[in-house]
Amino acid sequence: MDRPLSDLVVLDLTRALAGPIAGRLLSDLGAEVIKVEPPEGDLTRSIVPRVDGMSAYFVQYNAGKRCVSMDLARPEGRELLLRLVERADIVLENYRPRVMDRLGLDFETLVARNPRIILASVSGWGHGNSRSGDGAFASAIHAEAGVTAMVAKRRLEDHEPRNDPISHADVYTGLHALGALLAAVHLRDRTGEAQAVEVSMAESMLVVNDLASCELTGEEPAHGFRPGQNWSPIFALSNGRHVNVTLDATTNAGFRTWWLAMGRPGLADDPRFADIVDRVRNRAALEGELAAWVATFDDAASLQGALGLSTVLVSDVRTTAELSRTDWAGERGAFVDVDTGRGEAVTVPQSPWRFRGAASGVKPVAGFRGQHNREVLRDMLGADDHEVDALIEEGILSDRPPTWRQE
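Above: the chain sequence. Below: its structure as tokens.
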């Protein structure tokens, strides 16, 4: 079955995360994605844990790509890449701004070799401004864009902010890059002209922050129906497992739902909980009453039934591994085993789309650095073994097979 983007060829020069996730999703949609790594490789190849020598983190966002490794700092490497550009649709990069220019791979040079090329650039702060040259790991963007401060404030940890383990800024930026690239392809096909698009991590974090406009008002109402998910309490069941209940007990409607379900109308007469102001002031005491009741239930479904509203969600607090073992995960095919080369596998999340009449999803293989040097140059440039061997001998191409493959 055909895939939506099976007619596109992508040269993915990106490393770490914000770029590679966009490249993987393009691959999942059917594009031929060629990961172009420098001789030192993508830094995420060194991240632990590893399965059969392959970093699980690297596999998650680079599965399905063919891997080549060339030295773009040398003129011969630059020329080799430009030859590939002539046969590609998209060049995806996440260097700091101006690095592509210094490499001699600026947009004008790419267009001179391919008048229909699309250049997508991902950076921390965007191009052409006072912060363009700043480095930008996810934690730095979280700190600068208000996310770290917001989370600390809502956790009552203003005095000791902590970083979130998930790289939101990278992942969201990669998703925005995917959307921008699809739009650029559409525009290129409509106009016949090359396109360049750039996406910043900082703006990506701002646009996905559903509380940004509320923060910008300078107001923070303590009462009423407020945005954000931190008002959803988490309680322990009788078996020690935890559930999340998406229902703020301090609002009038939420409080009424709770005491009705508990069969305790007397709670409404308790002066600590008389009105919303009192309930907010005494939130800990109120949630203590709710916790004691929730602890009488054995599972989320029973509690959901007792609360009695379909709009109230009682959700198990699970690990990713636990979700992967549920019936839903199997029915949906939400996880995929990616072969590391000799039968062992790294399990990664599947992409979320399902098309009618078209295939999509991760191609379950992952390559070592430079694994596909020979086949990519043969398939795209018609290079023979003699030419490839010469490029290897000159240090323009390189590879790093896993130890077991060198034995």
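The mean pLDDT is 94.
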